[in-house]
């Protein structure tokens, strides 16, 4: 009995596959439309990507014929959502954006704006890589928030923006720190300065102030003699900026050691 059931399931599978292949090759649009809907609904019901992928192949064939027709809105939405649900976020971001432009009065337009933005959120890379997609995601999520301040996904969009903003922040910080570690101290000073201005509430704020000061200190003591006095004076200003906000920390102890050395070197130069 069990063997018979298995054979019946296999037979039904072959029948389904042959029907699908037959419809794919047909010139008539209606069978493709009906079967694409069937596979899409099966995908929604089961959560299985294989149904969405079959639906997508059919959508690709029928979308041009439904452009401008009443059913075009439904097909365009299902196609974008199918790509979204299988994790093809690069394409779903574009398709949802195109849907919202093509059907601005659709009841699905808010969802389309959000899912387009979230698609870019999903492809945002780790902070150490190029953050172009991250910036795009932030921009699109902010647009959703501005457009739908009472929207269903308002809270989620805000949370995602905060998460993505931390990536951007870390990227800026790591670039500045890389300049410092590779002994490009002028670039490090400028980068840490930009970071401090751009991210005033960052958890890396103390380190940014400290490494900016340390970069200036190392640059000063390794400069040619004619530049040393000016650069020591500049480093001292950066120390004063640092210690004004941060004292009693582990880094502040090291900063005081540098500051003492700056004072001694300055006094020696004055005596010469």
UniProtKB/TrEMBL annotation:
Residues 36-222 form the Outer membrane lipoprotein BamD-like domain. Keywords: Cell outer membrane, Membrane, Signal. It holds the Pfam family YfiO. InterPro entries: BamD, BamD-like, TPR-like_helical_dom_sf. It comes from the Bacteria. This is Outer membrane protein assembly factor BamD.
């Amino acid at each position: 009995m069990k063997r018979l059931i298995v054979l019946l399931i296999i037979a039904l599978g072959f029948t389904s596959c042959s029907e699908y292949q037959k419809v794919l090759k047909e010139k008539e649009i209606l069978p493709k439309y009906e079967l694409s809907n069937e596979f899409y609904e099966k995908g929604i019901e089961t959560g299985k990507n294989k149904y969405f992928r079959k639906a997508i192949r059919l959508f690709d064939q029928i979308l041009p014929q439904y452009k401008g027709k009443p059913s075009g809105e439904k097909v365009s939405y299902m196609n974008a959502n199918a790509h979204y649900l299988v994790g093809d976020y690069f394409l779903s971001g574009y398709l949802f954006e195109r849907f919202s432009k093509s059907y601005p009065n659709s009841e699905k337009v808010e969802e389309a704006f959000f899912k387009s933005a979230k698609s870019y959120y999903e492809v945002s890379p780790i902070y150490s890589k190029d953050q172009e997609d991250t910036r795009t995601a932030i921009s699109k999520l902010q647009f959703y928030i501005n457009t739908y301040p009472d929207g269903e996904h308002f809270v989620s969009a805000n949370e995602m923006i905060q998460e993505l903003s931390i990536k951007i922040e870390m990227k800026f910080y790591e670039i500045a720190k890389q300049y410092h570690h590779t002994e490009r101290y002028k670039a490090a000073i400028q980068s840490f300065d930009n970071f401090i201005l751009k991210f005033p509430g960052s958890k890396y704020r103390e380190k940014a102030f400290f490494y900016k000061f340390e970069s200036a200190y190392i640059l000063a003591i390794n400069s040619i003699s004619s530049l040393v006095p000016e650069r020591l004076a500049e480093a001292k200003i950066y120390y004063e900026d640092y210690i004004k906000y941060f004292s009693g920390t582990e880094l502040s102890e090291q900063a005081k050691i540098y500051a003492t050395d700056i004072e001694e070197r300055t006094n020696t130069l004055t005596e010469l």
